[in-house]
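Exercise 7b. Backbone tokens:
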């Protein structure tokens, strides 16, 4: 892993969230696959959806957001593991066995099915982001009085495994196929979707891993275009981005086998909490967590060192 890795977003379709105004401050060269309703003021350029995927998304317009579960369409297509293997071979560019799948997807290419699942997931994630925002407003309204006992509510476990590992693998293979021009020894995934962390965790656990250490750092952020512009202007004048990239690169190097990830993350956290706020145009009113996952070299798929957004919605995972 080089000191200045190329950061590539996962998944391919990212619905817009206000929190993403912080991304260009820290990752100005982020490689994103497809932008979904993102504002014009953001400095990222995305690809258009493939025609088959775009058409598929329109076909699915009759479903309510809560019904757009990726496993439902996948279950219709892959009624047994032999058909699942055909999809995987197709996504890898290998020749599939000559057979015609049964069911409603019999005339569709496996790659088109994979793209449709990606579009469906993005649509559901956009809906759930609105639900999260409503819950946030409710939480502000129903904040308990200072004399009330807090902490009595048991929260859900931090990591919830995706219940459909084959779908998790399908989305990972689609991402590697479509982002192949950017992926390599100098790249690192940045997990930005609601289910992305669980997808990678599911793949690691399915391969016998998932126990590698993780570190968390807290970054000052912004949630409006005005805040982003002010912070961006300050960053351009003061030039703190190179120092952040240097320290983050040190963390990713330490995420390799035998590295001291905890020590490198402590150094980055200390700089983020002590030095960076002094370089902000105003005291940052919001922070977000970035996770650094250590590499699991024995795992062939999704075992690389990676970055993950630590707070994208609740831990309830569709599927």
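Sequence design result:
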């Amino acid at each position: 892993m080089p000191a200045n890795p190329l950061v590539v977003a996962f998944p391919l379709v990212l619905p817009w969230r206000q929190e993403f105004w912080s991304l260009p401050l820290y990752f100005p060269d982020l490689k994103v696959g497809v932008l979904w309703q993102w504002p014009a003021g953001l400095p990222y350029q995305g690809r258009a959806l493939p025609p088959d995927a775009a058409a598929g998304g329109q076909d699915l317009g009759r479903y309510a957001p809560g019904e757009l579960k990726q496993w439902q369409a996948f279950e219709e297509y892959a009624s047994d593991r032999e058909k699942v293997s055909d999809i995987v071979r197709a996504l890898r560019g290998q020749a599939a066995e000559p057979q015609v799948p049964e069911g409603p997807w019999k005339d569709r290419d496996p790659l088109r099915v994979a793209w449709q699942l990606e579009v469906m997931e993005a649509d559901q994630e956009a809906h759930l982001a609105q639900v999260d925002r409503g819950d946030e407003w409710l939480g502000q309204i129903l904040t308990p009085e200072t004399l009330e006992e807090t902490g009595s509510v048991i929260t859900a476990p931090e990591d919830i495994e995706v219940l459909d590992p084959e779908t998790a693998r399908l989305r990972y293979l689609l991402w590697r196929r479509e982002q192949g021009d950017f992926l390599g020894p100098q790249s690192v995934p940045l997990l930005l979707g609601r289910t992305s962390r669980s997808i990678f965790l599911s793949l690691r656990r399915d391969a016998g891993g998932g126990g590698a250490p993780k570190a968390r750092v807290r970054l000052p952020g912004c949630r409006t275009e005005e805040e982003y512009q002010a912070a961006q202007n300050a960053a351009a004048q003061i030039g703190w981005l190179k120092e952040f990239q240097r320290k983050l690169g040190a963390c990713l190097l330490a995420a390799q086998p035998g590295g001291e990830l905890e020590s490198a993350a402590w150094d980055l956290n200390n700089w983020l909490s002590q030095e960076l706020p002094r370089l902000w145009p105003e005291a940052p009113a919001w922070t977000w967590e970035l996770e650094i996952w250590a590499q699991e070299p024995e795992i062939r798929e999704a075992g690389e060192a990676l970055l993950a957004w630590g707070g994208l919605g609740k831990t309830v995972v569709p599927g």
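Instructor comment: The CA atoms of residues 160 and 315 lie 7 Å apart. Strands lie at 6-10, 13-15, 34-36, 187-191, 214-220, 287-293, 306-309.
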